[in-house]
Structures are given as structure tokens and as C-alpha cells.
Write a structure and sequence with these properties.
about 260 residues, mainly alpha, about 0% strand
Length: about 260
């Protein structure tokens, strides 16, 4: 089983890198280069804060776009091209297919994020002239951004297992936006009573808590990120992702592909 998943993951990774990741890296590099003249006109302290916010936000946006729009096409593209049927005709389960696709796209996002993080640090070093101990804290924010990608890949695969690409993209985007305000929704649930409180609380725990994974502003201002938050976000993201992948595999295994 592991071998079959590995083959599917490798083919997915190779196809994704060949088609889209290089373009994404080029756009990211151009964005940082274009920002250099603007940031060069302000003081060093403000320059660093703006560069961190701009660079990490760019990593997040580009990665989320790949995670959602590439994730929703992993299954539908195989069905439309009819390349899925020869794969499933072999001793490959539908659950193995889903897990392999997830691992392949996750590997793509990990590689993509690592490359953009390297480019970001090179730009930061070039502008500031040095890298300090506080700059290592940025790696935590990048790690949290990567966790967002992994969660969104799972959600995209989940929706694509039973819906059309357009609806899957809409559902995934809506959950991404809602997830960024999950903390506010939980705060709202505490301020109301009765049925509204129950519904708000239920929704806040169903949608992904992406707000907890956004610490860009905190690291830009050198605020301390506790190890407990790193552990909580890691465990939460792993459990949420496993749940969505299991749901996608279960639904896809019962889907009529004719």
C-alpha cells in the first residue's frame, strides 16, 4: 500500500512542479524585487516590519491559491482526462489514490514554501545587511503558513471528492475566509445566548481555525511565540487534515464514476 501511495504522490508532485510552481516562484521573486525601491526610502526599523508583512503575506497568498485551485483539480482532472480508470483498474484503492494525491500536492507546497522562504531571507539579508536572532522567529510564522496550506489541501480534496471544480473552489474559499475569522466567531458566540450561541459555537469549531495560524504581525514586531502555541497548532492541523482526508476517501470510495 505504501509503495502505491508513493508512486501516486511522486507523479502528482512531478506534474504540479512542472506546471505551476516555477511560475509561482517567479512571481514571488518579482514581487520582492519590485518592493525593494519602495522599502529603501524608509527607515530600517519600519523597512523590516513592512518587508516581513509583505513577504510572508505573499507566501501565504500564493500558497493558498495553489493549495485550493490545484487541490480541487487533482480528482476532477483525472476523471475528465479518463486517466483515473487505468489507475483504479490496477490494485489501487480509491482511498490510496486520495492519500497519494494529497501527499504529492503537500510535497509540492513544502518545496514551494521552502524555496520562497529562502528567497525571502536572501532579500531580508540584502536589505538589512545582516540576520539577527529575532529573524529566526520568522520561521515559526512560515511553519504556520505551511500548516494552513496542508489544511486547505485537505479541504479542497474533500470538496472535490463529491462536487464540481467550481463549487469545490467556492466552498474552499469560503471556508478559508471564514477560518481567518474563527477567533472572532468564537468571541461572538460568548456574547450571545440560546440557539444563536449554540450555532455560532458549532460553526466556529467546524470551520478550520486559521486565525490561530496567522502570526505574521506578531513576528514582524518581534513578539514571542510560545512553544505551546506551536504544539497546539501542529496537533490541531494534523487532526483536522486527517479528518478531511478520511472524509474525502470515504466519499470518493462510494462515488459513482460512470
Amino acid at each position: 500500500m505504501i509503495g502505491r501511495i508513493r508512486v501516486i504522490a511522486f507523479n502528482t508532485f512531478r506534474e504540479a512542479v512542472r506546471d505551476r510552481v516555477l511560475y509561482n516562484l517567479v512571481f514571488f521573486a518579482l514581487l520582492l524585487v519590485a518592493s525593494a525601491p519602495i522599502l529603501g526610502e524608509i527607515s530600517a526599523g519600519v523597512q523590516r516590519v513592512l518587508l516581513i508583512n509583505l513577504g510572508l503575506s505573499a507566501i501565504s497568498v500564493f500558497g493558498i491559491v495553489i493549495a485550493i485551485f490545484l487541490g480541487i483539480s487533482l480528482v476532477s482532472k483525472e476523471i475528465e482526462r479518463r486517466t483515473l480508470y487505468p489507475v483504479l483498474a490496477r490494485p489501487v484503492g480509491r482511498g490510496e489514490f486520495i492519500v497519494g494525491k494529497y501527499c504529492g500536492l503537500a510535497g509540492t507546497l513544502v518545496t514551494n514554501t521552502a524555496a520562497m522562504a529562502l528567497g525571502f531571507y536572501i532579500t531580508l539579508w540584502g536589505m538589512m545587511g545582516h540576520l539577527g536572532r529575532a529573524d529566526a522567529n520568522i520561521l515559526i510564522a512560515i511553519y504556520f503558513i505551511l500548516l494552513q496550506f496542508l489544511v486547505m489541501i485537505g479541504l479542497s480534496l474533500f470538496f472535490s471528492s463529491f462536487s464540481s471544480p467550481m463549487l469545490s473552489a467556492l466552498f474552499a474559499l469560503c471556508l478559508f475566509v471564514a477560518g481567518t475569522f474563527a477567533g472572532d466567531l468564537r468571541t461572538f458566540a460568548l456574547s450571545v445566548h440560546g440557539l444563536e450561541r449554540w450555532l455560532a459555537s458549532a460553526v466556529s469549531y467546524i470551520i478550520p481555525n486559521l486565525a490561530s495560524l496567522n502570526v505574521i504581525t506578531r513576528v514582524a514586531h518581534d513578539q514571542f511565540i510560545p512553544a505551546s502555541l506551536v504544539g497546539y497548532n501542529t496537533l490541531y492541523s494534523a487532526l483536522y487534515t486527517i479528518t478531511t482526508i478520511c472524509g474525502a476517501a470515504l466519499i470518493f470510495s462510494r462515488r459513482n464514476l460512470r
